[in-house]
Amino acid sequence: MLLGSGELGKEFVLCAKRLGCRVVAVDRYANAPAMQVADAFEVIDMLDAKAIQRIAKQHKPDFIVPEIEAIRTEALLKLEQSGITVIPSARAAHLTMNRDAIRSLAAEQLKLPTARFAYATSEAELARTIERIGLPCVIKPVMSSSGKGQSVARKTADVATSWKYAIEGMRGDKQMVIVEEFIDFDYEITLLTVKQRASVGGKTMFVPPIGHRQVRGDYQESWMPCPMAPKLIRDAQRMAKKITDEIAGPEGAGLFGVEFFVKGSRVIFSELSPRPHDTGMVTMISQDLSEFELHFRAVLGLPIPQLTMRGPSASAVILAEGDIEHEPAYIGIANALREPGVEIRIFGKPSARPYRRMGVALATGKTVAQARKKALKAAACVQVVEGKAR
After folding, report:
1. Mean pLDDT over each residue of the chain, to the nearest integer
2. What is the pLDDT of residues 106-139, one digit of tens each?
């Protein structure tokens, strides 16, 4: 049972179906991408614990796989106690669905290097907090996705706007923001970290670092390989293993997207997702086993003998420019596919809004720079438009 049925969940379902699994896709709206390829679907309020427990009792899944942040995780704890396997664990889902919980664990308990941070639950408290953290600073809802509600406050006059934007972009019912020191990093990476079950050796594996660029707090493009000194890679791997070991426990399995800032010789922990990561969509073209295949194999305890890289690769998002209420259409795909080494994935979202991620362009090249150029060019070819009325 997949809790959250967006584009990442859709790819996970396709992996599961190839090996004969039955999948129930769940989300708060109908016709979500993963629902289109699953065996069954349910539309519920994901913050309603009783609704989650009801559909789990109805479908009796062996595994519950969270794919979004806004889930009533207390329900997962009860389901885990009843014998259902929650991926990677109910505790991990609870900790990582809330930025305050995972940041406090990383900085205070595990002593990982992070940006200085604090929390605020009102606009007035936010103003006082910014006085301590200093300007500029980054303000995010403690529960959100795809950069929603995230902004940079550069002057005191930005406080009210940042607070309003964070509250409008929050998911769930926890009105709280995290205020972070602004780090002028050299680059940022995602380190995909795979924890395997004891039945196949219990090894932790790492996909090579993925470089990425964000706008409005949301991923725009990603690439592999990301040039990074071997010592810095080892530092990131050590931190990723430490935090995933802690939150998953000895029995937890699955793929984690662990984000880091890199500044000079420092690697700084940023965030963690207990599931495939949007920046990791580049793995659909960069290697033999995508992040979705790795997550699926880890969940089921199937072996992952090795990863074979295909060479320099990149991804670039296809964004909507305006509001489209029903069945968007796409033009320009043929032009995008004229370039050798380019692939297009359309997610099949039933509606669009400005900046909503509707698809992704994937590309390979002789160099990372060439792959990025090809992916960006292909993404720019595709336009999201009003579909024909039916």
Report:
1. 94
2. 999 999 999 999 999 999 999 999 999 999 999 9
Strands (E), the chain: 2-3, 24-27, 40-43, 63-66, 85-86, 117-120, 137-141, 151-153, 177-181, 187-195, 204-206, 210-215, 218-224, 254-263, 266-273, 313-319, 329-331, 342-346, 357-364, 383-385
Task: Give the whole-number percent of the chain exceeding pLDDT 90.
Answer: 85
Paired tokens of 121 = 């639950």
pLDDT in tens, 305-332: 999 999 999 999 999 999 999 899 999 9
Active site residue 271: yes
The domain ranges of the chain are 2-86, 116-181, 187-385
108 among known catalytic residues = no
Which of 27, 259, 291, 293 is catalytic? The answer is 259
Which fold, 116-181?
Answer: Dna Ligase; domain 1 (3.30.1490)
Task: Band the pLDDT of 389: cuts 50, 70, 90.
Answer: very low
Q: Of these residues, 271, 339, 343, 386, which one is catalytic?
A: 271
Choose the catalytic residue: 104, 145, 204, 351: 145
Tell me if residue 257 is catalytic: no
> Catalytic residue at 290?
no
| From 7, 221, 235, 278, the catalytic residue | 278
Question: What is the CATH code for 2-86?
Answer: 3.40.50.20
| pLDDT recorded at residue 94 | 85
Is 147 among the residues known to form the active site? Answer: yes
